[in-house]
Amino acid sequence: MPKKDSHNLIVVKIGSSSLADKAGNLDHKKLKKLAGEVTALLKAKKKVVIVTSGAIVAGSPHLGISGKPKTIPEKQAAAAIGQSRLMHEYEKAFREFEVTVAQVLLTRDAIADRTPYINARNTLATLIDNGVVPIVNENDTVSTEEIKFGDNDTLSALVASLIGADLLVILTSVDGFYMNDEDGNPELVEEVKEISKEMEQEAGRPSEQGTGGMITKLEAAKIAMDAGITMIIANSSEAGVIEAAASGKKTGTKFDPKITKLESRKRWLAHGLKRSGIITVDGGAESALTKKGGSLLSVGILRADGDFAAGDAVSIVDESGRELARGLINYSRDDVDKIKGLKTEKVGEVLGYKASAEVIHRDNMVIL
Question: Is 252 left (phi over 0), alpha (psi -120 to 50) or beta?
């Protein structure tokens, strides 16, 4: 009989729906249950990081807001009130188990910039090594549309990738990912080896209290799978769900990691950066990038879209719009428009300067 998976470094993402009662307020019993399960992992010599939602849920009632805040200022105000209350509840829940927790607030720029990225990784590693459970949340009080993660599913996958976790457990209010069978009835998908377009089409809308939904969980799964991390979507109300996932028992929907995972910098290029534009390439460039490991040259570029500067992250797509790669571009959008389709030796002549022979060097690119 094959040995079940065993995971030692685990990220647990707890969604708003897993922390709230029917009225939309923080449910202390739910939080205590989850704290108890995490403590059981610590006693089993596992290391755990929690990525939590719930600050906006915790703060909204104190602003007199009914349901989800609609505007960014309302969300930021609710989070400003709710984050301290949420952390207080986590501290209280874990104190009963004599476990120390630490608050870690992140914004997109802490992941997108390589130096803060490494600093965040080192901080989390130090906390974990000292037996502390980091409680990570997005810094909603200062985030704007430009830098916010948008949902903590994405944040949890980026954190898991950042620290090199073995397992990401995303807890929600449903049993896992469902697909309709031939008769149109929803059926739980127990294991996923590759995310298909059909799965993305089946992904549901955001939940009432959370900012995510199944589509954001699939995006999280892509990040985790690329990083060689197993991901599980499971129901937070299931007894012992975190321990079951950590010990390899069947629960929820399991997303299998890719056999060949991306190394740290490539993961950062693939998922840590906000993309500022899109470069469409011809078949020759596609072959050079995906089959020969080459850099992107101006001659293979058909079109540029977006507003990007030199050094920004862009997506590289084929003529059908399928994404092939992501990377850091050496030229601005205006300059790419001028040199697209030209041979490399013509670039300096047209621009009056030549920053690089490559529009995107292979060392600053990741093939997807």
Answer: left
